[in-house]
What does this fold into?
Amino acid sequence: MDCYASWGGYNDRMERDIAYILIARDRIERRVRELAREISEVYGDDSQGLVIVPVLSGSIIFLADLIRCLPFKMKIGLMTISRYRGTSTSGGDTRLIQDLNVDIRNRHVLVVDDILDTGNTLRLVRSQLQQRGPASLRVCVLLRKLAKAPKDVLAEFVGFDIDDSFVVGYGLDYADHYRNWPDIGVLRPELYT
Ligand code: 5GP
Ligand code: MG
It folds into this structure.
C-alpha cells in the first residue's frame, strides 16, 4: 500500500521530520510474512483457540498486517500498557491502563508488541497474563534493541534486531505522532532534544 506518498500540498508531511529510514516498508512486509509462517509452524494444532493479545497502542499496524497472514481462527484480547508520556527516551514507568477483556484460562496466548527495549513492558504483561492460567504464553515483537533487552524477558518471535536509536513509524510514535508513517525511521534529533 503506497497511498499518499505522492500526494502534494500538505505542510505537515511526516517525511520532513524523519532523518532516515531504518527499515523500509517492503522489507517490513516480507519479514511480517515470514514471521506469520514461523508462528503458524510453531503452533500447529495448538493454534485452535489461540488468543492474540496486542500491547496497545504501538502494535496496531504490525498486528493488523501479521494476523491477516495467519490462516487459523483466533480471538483478539485487548489490554493497554503505557510507558512513555510524550517524551521519547525518558522514564521507565510502565503501567497497566486497561485490563484484558477476554478469558485466557487454558488458552494458547500470543502477545504481540512493537518493540522490546528495557523489557519492563513485557515483564509486566507476561506476569499479568501468566496469573490467568493460559495453556501457553509466547511473545512476538516486531523490533528488539538487542544491546538493551534483558536476558530474563524473552520474545519467542522477533522481526528485526536494531541498534539503540529511537524509531518511529509503522505503529511506533513520538508524542502520539508518526504511527501512520509506513516505514520505520529515525526522527531528526532536534525534534526531541
Ligand atoms: P520497554 O518496556 O521494553 O523498555 O519498552 C517497550 C515500549 O517502549 C515499547 O512498546 C514502545 O512503546 C516504547 N519504546 C521503546 N523503544 C522505543 C523506540 O525506539 N521508539 C518508540 N516510538 N517507542 C519505543
Ligand atoms: Mg508498546
